[in-house]
């Protein structure tokens, strides 16, 4: 693995990178995560949010600095990552880069050298991310849906996920993550970075292996409620700006998840059930997603799976939109979904 130090050319080595991993009761998944990190790293910080499974002890035994979050303050992943960066700066103030990784992910052994090359090629690139894959995508259809979700276009991106390599200077310039956000914190951070003139780049390289362990419809539903909440909060904050941030996703969730079914049911009695045929418009959405996934390179069965659950997902995502605005209007604090 390359081990050259940064110099005037803007090149970096693995020892210029610190890792911030976050987790809670990840068990064996965190062990795999820590073991996957290269030995040449400048530092490793593990931020724990109240684990009782020995995660803290394991991380310490394997050389990580450990930050135990104050759980009297509402937890968010954004707050955990900020705490990790703060400890990283205290321990190794000379470090230039941070690799964020979730505790249920393993880092690909060749990822960091590949990402460093992208940073060296363009000083405007502040964030580099790659391909996150599910460890067992075929174990459950929900794992498979996650794996398909991670397969996003290569090149300039609007956002990254929880795993990404970032320049610490750019992160500090925009004030880090917004610790109050319970979901959608990475896209919101990337929006501010792009507004500051930085690039978010997704490269064609393996990055992490994720272990979703999603076996139940209820887990998938909650995940989509969280996504709908994130879209709603992002649109509430920035939707009126030039980028029309999250506008398309929010309007789609409202139209498909609330508007169409409500209209169909409301007029069912006066139209003697004729209005229920409006629900057939979900077939249009299905065909649109199906065609898109086929063009993306998916098999017919995978495209059909994605199309079915994209249509169904409008309902929990609309629920997330309603939940965000209900709490906002009633003055309730948003809590982790």
Q: How would you sum up this structure, described in words?
A:
- With 337 residues, this protein is an alpha/beta fold.
- It has two domains: 202 residues, Spore Coat Polysaccharide Biosynthesis Protein SpsA, Chain A, CATH 3.90.550; 99 residues, no CATH class.
- 46% of the residues lie in helices and 16% in strands.
- Helix 2 links the parallel strand 2 and strand 3.
What would the keywords be for this entry?
disordered N terminus, Spore Coat Polysaccharide Biosynthesis Protein SpsA, Chain A, 9-stranded mixed β-sheet, alpha/beta, 2 domains, 337 residues
List the helices and strands and how they pair.
Blueprint: E1 17-23, H1 28-35, E2 43-48, H2 55-61, E3 65-68, H3 77-91, E4 97-102, E5 105-107, H4 111-121, E6 125-134, H5 141-150, E7 155-156, E8 164-167, H6 168-173, H7 185-195, E9 199-210, H8 217-238, H9 247-266, H10 282-296, H11 300-312, H12 314-330
Parallel strand pairs: 1-2, 1-4, 2-3, 6-9
Antiparallel strand pairs: 4-8, 5-9, 6-8, 7-9
Helix pairs in contact: 8-9, 8-12, 9-12, 10-11
Helix content: 40-55%
Helix and strand content put the structural class at alpha/beta
Q: Mind telling me the CATH superfamily name of the largest domain?
A: Spore Coat Polysaccharide Biosynthesis Protein SpsA, Chain A
Gross morphology: globular
Q: And the CATH topology of the largest domain?
A: Spore Coat Polysaccharide Biosynthesis Protein SpsA, Chain A
Query: How many distinct domains?
Result: 2
SS elements, strand count:
9
């Amino acid at each position: 693995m390359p081990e050259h130090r940064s110099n005037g050319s803007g090149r970096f080595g693995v020892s210029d990178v610190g890792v911030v991993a976050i987790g809670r009761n990840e068990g064996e998944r965190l062990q795999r995560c820590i073991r996957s990190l290269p030995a040449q790293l400048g530092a490793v910080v593990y931020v724990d949010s109240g684990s009782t499974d020995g995660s803290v002890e394991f991380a310490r035994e394997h050389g990580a600095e450990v930050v135990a979050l104050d759980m009297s303050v509402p937890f968010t992943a954004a707050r955990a990552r900020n705490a990790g960066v703060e400890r990283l700066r205290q321990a190794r103030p000379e470090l230039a880069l941070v690799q964020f990784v979730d505790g249920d992910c393993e880092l690909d052994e060749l990822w960091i050298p590949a990402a460093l090359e992208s940073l060296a090629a363009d000083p405007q690139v502040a964030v580099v991310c790659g391909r996150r894959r599910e460890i067992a995508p075929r174990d459950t259809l929900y794992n498979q849906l996650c794996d398909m979700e991670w397969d996003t276009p290569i090149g300039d991106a609007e956002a990254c996920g929880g795993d990404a390599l970032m320049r610490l200077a750019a992160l500090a310039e925009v004030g880090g993550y917004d610790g109050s956000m319970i979901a959608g914190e990475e896209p919101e951070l990337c929006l501010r970075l792009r507004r500051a003139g930085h690039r978010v780049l997704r490269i064609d390289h393996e990055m992490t292996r994720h272990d979703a362990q999603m076996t139940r419809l209820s887990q998938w539903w909650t995940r989509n409620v969280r996504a709908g909440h994130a879209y709603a909060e992002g649109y509430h904050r920035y939707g009126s700006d030039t980028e029309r941030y999250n506008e398309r996703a929010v309007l789609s969730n409202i139209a498909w998840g609330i508007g169409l079914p409500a209209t169909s049911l409301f007029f069912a009695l006066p139209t003697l059930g004729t209005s229920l045929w409006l629900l057939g418009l979900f077939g249009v959405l299905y065909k649109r997603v199906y065609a898109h996934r086929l063009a993306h390179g998916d098999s017919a069965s995978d495209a059909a799976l994605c199309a079915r659950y994209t249509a169904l997902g409008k309902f929990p995502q609309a629920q997330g939109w309603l939940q965000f605005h209900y709490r906002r209007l009633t003055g309730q604090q948003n809590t982790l979904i």
